[in-house]
Design brief:
Helix content of chain B: 10-25%
CATH superfamily of the largest domain in chain B: Naphthalene 1,2-dioxygenase Alpha Subunit, Chain A, domain 1
Structural class of chain A: alpha+beta
Largest interface: A-B, 35 and 49 residues
Order of helices and strands of chain B: HEEEEEEEEEEEEHHEEEEEEHHHEH
Oligomer: heterodimer
Radius of gyration of chain B: 26 Å
CATH topology of the largest domain in chain B: Naphthalene 1,2-dioxygenase Alpha Subunit, Chain A, domain 1
Distance between the termini of chain A: 36 Å
Largest sheet of chain A: 3 strands, antiparallel
Structural class of chain B: alpha+beta
Shape of chain B: globular
Protein name (chain A): Ferredoxin
Radius of gyration of chain A: 15 Å
Helix content of chain A: 25-40%
Number of helices of chain A: 4
Number of helices of chain B: 7
Strand content of chain A: 15-25%
Bound molecules: FE2/S2 (inorganic) cluster, fe (ii) ion, zinc ion
Strand order of the largest sheet of chain A: 1-2-3
Chain lengths: 92, 388
Amino acid sequence: MTIRADNRLLDGAPMQPLDCHQCGAEVEVRKASWHQTSVQWSSQALGACLERRAAHSGDGGGPDHGLFPGCTALRESIVRAALDGAIPVPEE
Amino acid sequence: MKGWVTVTAVEASTTGIRAIEAEAVPTRFARGWHCLGLSGQFKDGKPHTVNAFGQKLVVFQSGDGGLNVLDAYCRHMGADLSKGRIKGDELACPFHDWRWGGDGRCKKIPYARRVPLRARTAAWTTMEQDGLLFVWNDPEGNPPQPEVAIPRIEGATRDDWTDWVWQEIVVETNCREVMDNVVDMAHFFYVHYSFPTYFKNIFEGHVATQIMNGLSRPDARPPGKGPRMLGNSSVASYHGPSFMIDDLTYHYDDMDLKSVLINAHYPIDGNSFMLHSGIIVQHSDKLPREGAEAMAHKLGEFILKGFDQDVEIWKHKTRIDNPLLCEEDGPVYQLRRWYEQFYVDVADVRPEMVERFEFELDTTRPVEAWKQEVEANLARRAAAGRQA
Ligand code: FES
Ligand SMILES: [Fe+2]
Ligand SMILES: [Zn+2]
């Protein structure tokens, strides 16, 4: 089976590079609306993320089985980038 | 009739009609652990037939208590071993009584002096955990890697949780359809009558996660007495291609109910799969033992109803490799990119199949609040510009 491209990335805005203000990890980001955010990590970026490293120094147990829900610093960086227009947000 | 297809394509492009594209279903089956259901059902002293991965398998318990899975067809003259009998540590064929061990080797032929060479059949790696039986499928024939082990489910072995309420149904379509549910936000509203207010997918390595907080829709709630279900919070992860553990809390007006839901399947063949759902519920002050048992059964029925709603769609839909998505849809393409890792050799797993991807929808902060902040930003910038 071939892996196909998301039609929204072909016809709409592409993923855009963004640095995390805390750890400098470079990820790709896209917002389809104020409510929606997509983030593509590379293994390099994941290795650089401080919160991720802190989360994985534990035993990874617990009810959610070591799930890393996401980096809060990166989340903030994305909010800032959206608010000052660096990451475009389509008008509703 | 040369050019027939071409003409259709030209017509399509001039009329702007979008074509549905679909390759044939894959000829191989996913690499990974697959759950065959509650392990207890296989411990009744009889061999069991399981149709999986395009083959017929036999599950039997040997004298040491372990559960074994073999190819069901006897290598002597092809009889069905799942119609045979367990004799001590071995499975005896119903045709000529050849005795097969859990390792796939023929141990004895009661009427022969010696077992011929190469008397060995396919044996599958099995694993029993938390009351469930798992079988490892790998088209390349490698043993399971420890990194893809199925995590333990704490409540499954604890006294303050109910036993499994387990259900199985055969679904007549390719199992990719059930995987799409991981990302299909909108169908939760239209098919399952719930209302997601927060939704997140995370794909990383061999794990695909769906985090969802939803409100019960008042228009879909049966009126009447009893506690009202307000909504639920769910963290659900597929650990590999077929086994999902969902930490699911139901919120009622007077209590929270903690449960673990299993959503699992194994392919029967390319065009059908066995869909499993299992649920356990934690006891609480409001819901001690019997109440929790009753609730687990009620929820089990509720979940089965949810499956029926999906099945009704799957039964009639077509396979589609090029879904036409709107911005409000979930990451279907990225999920399928993740899922593809289980259908290629380990050496052919590409970085984009396993690299972390996040998709988040958070409606808890109204758009108005966002807009006001942007306005404030712009005003601040304009003021700073005037000063400079
Ligand atoms: S076919 Fe199984 S013993 Fe002969
Ligand atoms: Fe569904
Ligand atoms: Zn970070």
